[in-house]
Amino acid sequence: MKLYDGGKAPNPRRVRIFLAEKGLEVPLEPVDMSALGHKSELISSRNPLQRLPVLELDDGTIISESVAICRYFEELHPEPALMGVNALDKANVEMWQRRMEFNLLLLVANVFRHAHPAMAEWEVPQIKEFSDSNKPKVLATLAWMNDELKDKEFIAGERFTIADITAMIAVDFLKPARLEVPEEHTHVLDWHKRMKARPSANA
């Protein structure tokens, strides 16, 4: 088994943090995304979408998409539960995971990919107007998150879950996207500080 890893990119980080929370070690095969290593034949032959991470099992089976990889390890190692413990909890965690992925991480990525000069060869065509149109949506999500977190320690309720991982990655990604959490959103800032204090945040 090996995990083709993309370093500091958001989705590879999601999987590494998930594994760290599980206490699992999986052999990593570093891929230099800055040199467009994700577009190499090595990765393209395993994931035609040319995206990382990619998990290759011992029998050659390939699993791509970060949440799918996390689901695989959750099923093999259910404790600590990062994707829910029963039907209702699993549905709730999935709801919040998708909210954080589609209403925050994706929007921040749109801002970054369509405006940052380093992404000009990746995002073709790079449309600055699209980047600009996503900025107020990011801020609206952060305002909503702040209200949600006023009575909760974690994104999906009482326990740390994959939803917290996705949300933390998204908030971390604000900096390269040249955005920031408004200082009045104290609940988001306090939550983020707690998440960054976890050892897994450095995975």
SSE order in H/E notation? EHEHEEHHHHH
- The count of DSSP E runs of length 2 or more, i.e. the number of strands, is 4
CATH topology of the largest domain: Glutathione S-transferase Yfyf (Class Pi), Chain A, domain 2
Could you give the order of strands across the largest sheet? 2-1-3-4
**Mean pLDDT rating:** 97
Helical content class? 40-55%
Can you offer a commentary on this structure?
- This protein is of the alpha+beta class.
- The protein folds into two domains: 2-76, 3-Layer(aba) Sandwich (Glutaredoxin); 87-202, Glutathione S-transferase Yfyf (Class Pi), Chain A, domain 2.
- The chain is built from seven helices and four strands, in the order E-H-E-H-E-E-H-H-H-H-H.
- Strands 2-1-3-4 form a four-stranded mixed β-sheet, with helices on one face.
- Strand 1 (2-5), helix 1 (10-22) and strand 2 (28-30) form a beta-alpha-beta unit.
- Helix 1 packs antiparallel against helix 6, helix 4 runs antiparallel to helix 5 and helix 4 packs parallel to helix 6 (162-172).
- The radius of gyration is 17 Å and the shape is globular.
